[in-house]
Amino acid sequence: MLWEAASPHDVLRDRFGFESTERASGWITEACRSIWGIETSTCTRIVLSDKNALAWLSSSSGPLVAKWSIAREKYSRLSALAHVLSTLARDGIPVSAPIAALDGRLQVEVDGVSLALQREMPGEILDVGDSAQVHAAGTMLGQLHHTLAGASAEETVLSPQEAVPHLRDRIEAWLEEDRAHLPPRAVEILRDALPDRDNDHPVQLLHGDFRSTNVLWSKGQVAAVLDFDEARVGHRVDEVARSAVLLGTRFTEWNPVTPAVRDEFLRGYASANPLSASDLRWVRTLVLWYTLVMVPAADTSSSWVRAAVDELSSPHWRS
């Protein structure tokens, strides 16, 4: 299990319909052979998360990862994402693009599930303690946004049904709720710092969850960007700021990074996708907001409170 405190064998049986790991392994082996024409020898691991399952497979053409979903309401979305990943790979972004089935499909519906087959990407989870990796991650997000800007119009299924809310409207709505657990000075500064409503911030397709867990590093470079399941249409600057704040979070370890790490990440981003003066104002405001959002109501002495204080000590807020 990736997140849940549950028996994986029970979940595999009750949620995914396999009486054993051997049954699941046999099913995915047969699917690879009949749908992709690929012979696999061993299923080394199966990981379950909510309505998704991933299986790591050995094959004569190298290690593979099969990913399937039982969330029927997301099948059309998964198919659209498969085409986005294929486009990104074609344009040089290091993603694990889906392998085309024998009939050309990138995402296949079989036995009531939506299934894709990808090559396993090498590398280790990004180390935010290494400034070179942090800078490269920022650069990669900038390159990714540049490529995704051209893909969003093509994949209408990923577009919102309603207009994307303005950044200021989102933060003002959040400020209207009870924020008594937050440092009053930080809330006051955030409220006073909200930039005017302008309309020059690009709205495009975003990764949705760009942080260390989903970025692999190998041989001195970003080797892969993983997990586009949360891809959405939104403001580019919103994802830049959110990623800068959450870059160091891993699975169940959700701790903040230092202001120096955030600044290095932003420098990396700007080297590939320049930010206007208006963009920068919004990024700094959103960095403070996301830091405050992460402060747990039940622990006012958490590391996220200290992170908010550190952020307010930066030259940006003193000027």
Describe the overall structure.
This protein has 11 helices and 10 strands. It is an alpha+beta fold and 319 residues long. A hairpin with a 2-residue loop joins strand 4 and strand 5 (113-119). Helix 7 runs antiparallel to helix 8 (259-272). The protein is globular, with a radius of gyration of 21 Å. The protein starts with 7 loop residues before the first helix and ends with a helix.
How are the SSEs ordered, and which strands pair?
Layout (H helix, E strand, L loop, with lengths): L7 H7 L6 H16 L3 E10 L2 E8 L4 E6 L5 H16 L17 E3 L2 E7 L4 E2 L5 H21 L15 H9 L8 H10 L9 E4 L8 E4 L2 E5 L6 E4 H11 L12 H14 L4 H17 L9 H10 L2 H4 L1
Antiparallel strand pairs: 1-2, 2-3, 3-5, 4-5, 6-8, 7-10, 8-9
Helix pairs in contact: 4-8, 6-9, 7-8, 7-9, 9-10
Estimated helix fraction: 40-55%
Beta-strand content: 15-25%
Anisotropy-based shape: globular
Task: Extract low-pLDDT stretches.
Answer: none
Number of strands: 10
Output the radius of gyration: 21 Å
Order of helices and strands: HHEEEHEEEHHHEEEEHHHHH
**What is the count of DSSP helices, taking H or I runs of 4+ residues?**
11
Rounded mean pLDDT score: 92
Calculate the terminal CA-CA distance, rounded to whole Å: 47 Å
